[in-house]
Write a structure and sequence with these properties.
about 190 residues, Uracil-DNA Glycosylase, subunit E, 8 helices, alpha/beta, six-stranded mixed beta sheet, single chain
Amino acid sequence: MYAKYHRCTACALGFKRKHFVFGSGNEHADVMFVGEAPGAQEDEQGQPFVGQAGKLLTRILNAIDFTRDEVYITNILKCRPPNNRDPMPEEIDACDAILKEQIRLVRPRLICALGRVAAQALLKQNSSIRALRGRFHDYHGIKLLVTYHPSGLLRNAAYKRPTWEDVQLLRKEYDRIVQSDAQATPGAEVS
């Protein structure tokens, strides 16, 4: 799929980027994390969440017993907006088909939207992150949880506790799904 899109110029960002930042991790993951857009380090390296926010995301994943190799990580936008500004609606629209195809191919059972932009783009609504977080939403039959973006946690320590509550909720739901699958499959072991 990367080969299909890596030369995308559907919006102006495609002409200014250094790298098309597609996604990373397990392409058959049960859990997908969707952020906003690549930053400077992501554009430089061509991988999502490799800067300070990415390091924090890795620590958050480890705290709930996931590794980056077990989940799939991507962004709403695949190219960096200048000066890390919020993505414009036409940029989100230009990347929408790519993200939908990623979700269709990965087939996650849970999606975690990281931050306001990702949440609003996925849920197609303009509610605040406070109104959206702390519970699951339906995204075309997939449970979607909203929490703060790791970069927000780096700027505002007050977001740490609610984010911790959110990711614990995500982990509990993942464990419930795994348990349910094991009970539905005769002879399966539950870890």
